[in-house]
Write a structure and sequence with these properties.
- The protein is mainly α and about 200 residues long.
- Among the domains are: about 65-100; about 115-180.
- It contains four helices and no strands.
Amino acid sequence: MSTGNSDSTSGSGSAAPRKAPAARKRTGAAASASRATGTSGSRSASRPAGASRGTASSTQPLTPVQHAQRLAERAVLVPIGASLLVRDNLISTARGIVGSYSTRTGIERELKRYERRGTSARTQLERQVRRQRTRFERELRQRRTRVERTVRQNRRTLEREVRSVRKDLARQSDLVTTRVDKLVSNAQELIGSAF
């Protein structure tokens, strides 16, 4: 009898767990179907088909009273939300500062981080200063060579013009002297022929 009872209990015990997963599967499938449709049995029965949660449908226009109510709610909720966000930011900042500076190792770590940041800023500044200095020196050299080239070109053209003017003057003086000599010889011939 004990074996029969144990068989019956084991049979009934084995049958119950087999039915339970099927029931779970059915309830899980029903729950997933209700999640997919966005409704549950109790909520869908209590709410009309076209109504949404606490607000009017998007197809229905707002009445002036509802519009004023929404503006009043927004005017109250926006400053409250902003002050709560500021408070949360302040709390997180304070917690970060307390967490960073609460121990000696944390303070040393922060000081090393600040030192690395200062070193990188100094290196970047020195690099920028060197870059600006090399650019300034390059532009200064270019301007100097440009000015020297212009001065050399102007001196060459001036010397060339002075030489050409000197040659012209020498040529003109030669012509004048030859003409004067001709005039003097002609005058002497005229004077000699007159006497």
